[in-house]
Amino acid sequence: MAKDVNTSDNFIRPLRRLLSALFIILLFSIFILWRIDSPRVERIRAQLVDRVVPSFEWALVPVTKTIDMVENFQSYSRIYEQNQELRRELRQMQAWKEAALQLEQKNAKLLDLNNVQLDPKYTYVTGVVMADSGSPFRQSVLLNVGSRDGILDGWATMDGIGLVGRISGLGENTARVVLLTDSNSRLPVTIQPSGQRAILSGDNTARPPLSFIESLELIRPGDRVVSSGDGGVFPSGLVIGQVALGADRRLRVVLAADYERLDYLRVLRSLEGERITDPGSLILPDAPISATADTAEASNG
Questions:
Q1: Nearest-angstrom CA–CA distance, 30 and 15
Q2: CATH number at residue 262
Q3: What is the torsion angle, in degrees rounded to the nearest 10, for the CA atoms of residue 170, residue 233, residue 204 and residue 179?
Q4: How many whole angstroms separate alpha carbon 189 and alpha carbon 211?
Q5: Model pTM greater than 0.85?
Q6: Is residue 265 situated within a structural domain?
Q7: Torsion on CA atoms 196, 208, 109, 260, rounded to nearest 10
Q8: If you average pLDDT over residues 115-124, what whole number do you get?
Q9: What distance in Å separates the CA atoms of residue 211 and residue 186, rounded to the nearest whole number?
Q10: HSE (CB half, 13 Å, CA atoms) of 61?
Q11: Structural domain span for residue 240
Q12: Does a structural domain hold residue 198?
């Protein structure tokens, strides 16, 4: 068995050498052929190229495919970079859109504050809500106006639509507003069109209940609720909301003010009128001279 292996080796080695020699001779011949500078040899070279080169297209396929893959990969890389840039721009545009929406909402609230119709005798100061100091047991907000702006404790505050609360606590530059929904809030109201009087009592919910109603049968859901002005707590006629029937079968008020977006509040200057306790201290206007003379003659007569 070992003899057969040695015999095959002795046969393959000379054959390999012979083929290597022939391949080297072929390459050397091609080199010589390409180095000869003759018109006849040039024609032979051209014919050889025309016959041999087209048949090697199959050998160029991997090279061309590799080049295409590299170009496609570069194209995909550029597309990925462009996609990432577009994503960054989209996030920036979304942030700008959110900022634009917030500015639009603030602008709408300011327009509401400018367009709301109030009694001409009331002047106001508009303040920005700086913080919400509310809690499950207390609901209030802070304004950036205070005693330096002439604000007094107890004045009413409104947003662009309805009554929000009253000033309760003043600083030099800030004021605290207790909302109508606060559990400590009590407000005399009038229910229209029946004219019934009631008390709006805050209970830390979005729809405070009505209590101490004179005649329940005269009140219907949807009736308008305004401040009555009783007790001098608030000016009369300020819009508060509408009557609604709660899940507990109690009459509650759907507040007109948007408590979810309290950005700006209007503080009403409700200066108290002069109280007269002694009718004798009234100073009557000067009577005309003719009327005074007629009165004196009549008394003499």
A1: 22
A2: 2.40.10.340
A3: -40
A4: 10
A5: no
A6: yes
A7: -170
A8: 61
A9: 10
A10: 6
A11: 123-269
A12: yes
Task: Classify strands 196-201 and 186-192 as parallel, antiparallel or unpaired.
Answer: antiparallel
Cβ partners under 8 Å of residue 180, min gap 6: 163, 164, 165, 187, 200, 202, 208, 240, 255, 257
Token pair of 185, please?
């809030």
How does the average pLDDT of the chain come out, rounded?
77
For residues 207 and 245, what is the distance between their CA atoms, to the nearest angstrom? 10
Residue carrying the six token digits 């000379």 = 14
DSSP conformation letters of the chain: -HHHHHHHHHHHHHHHHHHHHHHHHHHHHHHHHHH---HHHHHHHHHHHHHHGGGGHHHHHHHHHHHHHHHHHHHHHHHHHHHHHHHHHHHHHHHHHHHHHHHHHHHHHHHHHHH----TT-EEEEEEEEEE--BTTB-EEEES--GGGT--TT-EEE-SSSEEEEEEEE-SS-EEEEETTSTT-EEEEEEETTTEEEEEE--SSSSPBEES-S-GGG--TT-EEEE--GGGSS-TT-EEEEEEE-TTS-EEEEESS-TT---EEEEEE-PPPPP---GGG--PPPPPHHHHHHHHHHHH-
Residue length of the chain:
301
Model confidence pLDDT, tens digit, residues 245-281: 888 888 999 998 888 888 888 888 875 555 556 655 5
Examine residue 22 and state whether it is found in any structural domain, yes or no.
Answer: no
What integer is the mean pLDDT of 107-134? 67
Closest CA to 181 of 208, 150, 143, 218: 208
Structure confidence by residue, pLDDT tens digits, 90-102: 888 888 877 776 6
Q: Does 161 map to a domain?
A: yes
| Partner residues linked to 265 by β-bridges | 127
What per-residue confidence (pLDDT) applies to 179? 92
